[in-house]
Amino acid sequence: MLRCLFGLAFLCVATFVAADDSLERVVKSGKLVWGADLEGGGPFIYAKADDPDTLIGFEVELADLIASKLGVKAEFRQGQWEKLPDVLDRGDIDIVLNGYEWSPERAQRYATSRPYYIYELQLLARKDDATLNDWPDLEKELDGEKRRVVVLGGSAAEAYVQDHFGDKVEIVRIDGITDAMRAVELHADGIDANLQDSPIVTFYLQEGFPGLKRVGRPVGKNYYVAMGRKEDLSLINRINEIILEARNDGSLRKIYDRYGLWNVTQETEALEIDPGKTNAPNAFQATRGWAVVQKYTPFLVRAAGVTVLMSVTAMPLAILTGMIIAICRLYGPAPLRMLGTFYVEVVRGTPLVLQLYTIYFLLPEVGIRFSAFTASIMGLAINYSAYEAEIYRAGMQAIPKGQWEAATSLGMSRWLTLRRIIVPQATRIVIPPMTNDFIALFKDTAVCSIITVVELSKEYYIHARSTGAVVELGIVTASLYLMMSYPLSKLTTYLEHRLHAAKT
Questions:
Q1: How many CB atoms within 10 Å of residue 371?
Q2: Nearest to residue 6, comparing CAs of 221, 155, 163?
């Protein structure tokens, strides 16, 4: 069935006559920009163990191969996995190359390449779980409870479990590949099994998760494809030619052999995969202890710098905007008061992630574009401005009415009174709660990873999942957050004491 669908897809591509300049554009630019998510880890794309600045993985090498055949250089662009198609639509990348399975829905929306890897789904369970040895065992309840199967949200594995087991099992969705495997190994929250793509199992199982075992035969053959914009057919057609050439001349096999991924399936499309082929030159090796702290702390510190820069830029903008909105709500004409109230309610009533998504992904639909970093600052500033507006409004309302009366008796205008008397005193009152918000802002920068910004928490997830050093790097990351927030916490305490002393 899938083969027929592929035939139809390729026929449509071959007969599509609309001209495009995508291939010419890439060649003229001298680079092929491809999107992937480092957080996904090996064997797709991950940092080299002895040189974390260098990225390796079979998709990294495939991107380099395609770029070299095009006569350009491959340029990697980080993006959150499930948002990569949106980044593609936005025009920030030329292709998505990150373990995306072919599906009729994706083929309808995007120009998809011929398969560059054929994979299957492998069920994993704990080695010491004697009750789970084959696929039918999933349907058997354990101690009166359904089996809990963890999968990546939105993946082919999730669709397979839903289609074949339905309500006979409980599906648990998670974001990280290694997080899913670790949850099974630790039996976290009663999770019994994990359904993973075969390349991931081959790469991680032996060294990364020795407490896991394969259960049953691989199932659900599917295809990894590159995705381009629907109109970029000339680029995708050339990529198809390159993939076919690389398959025929052995270039693809050389790449996959380096990661232990070449098997009979790639050559004959049979369903047989050698379950013992896990020893490969670039197989996963867990890195733990002081060595991993020394190696990856500089990357975390650099990402912490991004977090600090975003925070110290966004917070002043939020305070200024919030103060203006508060003044409009308290002292402006009726239309401004209504507009200010509407702004506060809308911004406070919608999540930050939706606001970021709107700025970064939806505004380009009407021709308004911002870089990911700028969009992050705008999103944070807008989100926090609503809260700062309410804080400022409360501060201004706390000023005794006698201040207004005294200013009026001196002949001061309304706006002069605000500028010289009310706002300065209100600022003094609101500094402590605003400082608390500043601390919260440091942590909320983590949400910005949804629009491809690599800040401290995203950097942590990338390296923790690729090295297995969840605890060690977690301690370093927590320490960096503490180093950023603790001085502000002490400043808040100091200001509160000063304010209390001034009142008494």
A1: 13
A2: 221
d(CA 232, CA 67): 16
Confidence of residue 19 (pLDDT cuts 50, 70, 90): low
Q: For a pLDDT cut of 90, what percent of the chain falls above it?
A: 57
> Tell me: the pLDDT tens digits for 382-398?
999 999 999 999 998 98
Which of 344, 115, 140, 360 has its CA nearest to residue 240? Answer: 115
The rounded distance, in Å, linking the Cα atoms of 96 and 36 is 6
DSSP letters for 34-91? EEE-GGG-TTTSEEETTEEEEEESHHHHHHHHHHHHHTSEEEEEE--GGGHHHHHHHT
Q: Which of 52-56, 294-298, 401-405 has the lowest mean pLDDT?
A: 401-405
DSSP 407-464: HHHTT--HHHHIIIIIHHHHHHHHHHHHHHHHHHHHHHGGGGGGGT---HHHHHHHHH
| Averaged pLDDT of the chain | 87
| The pair of three-digit structure tokens given for residue 352, joined into one six-digit string | 């930050």
Map tokens 């495009």 to a residue: 20
Per-domain residue ranges of the chain:
2-116+226-249, 119-222, 290-503
Q: In CATH, what number does 2-116+226-249 get?
A: 3.40.190.10
pTM over 0.90, yes/no: no
In eight-state DSSP terms, residue 360 is I
Residues 6+ apart with CB under 8 A from 144: none
Q: What pLDDT shows up at residue 44? A: 96
Question: Does residue 126 sit in helix, strand or coil?
Answer: strand
Residue 465, φ and ψ in degrees, nearest 5: -80, -30
Nearest to 407 by CA among 421, 427, 393, 419: 421
Which CATH superfamily hosts domain 290-503? MetI-like (1.10.3720.10)
Q: CA-CA distance, 1 to 38, in Å (whole number)?
A: 33
119-222: same fold as 2-116+226-249?
yes
Rounded Cα distance between 85 and 87, Å, is 5
pLDDT for residue 264: 78
pLDDT of residue 27: 97
Of 118-122, 135-139, 411-415, 495-499, the poorest mean pLDDT is in 495-499
User: What is the three-class DSSP state of 171?
Assistant: strand
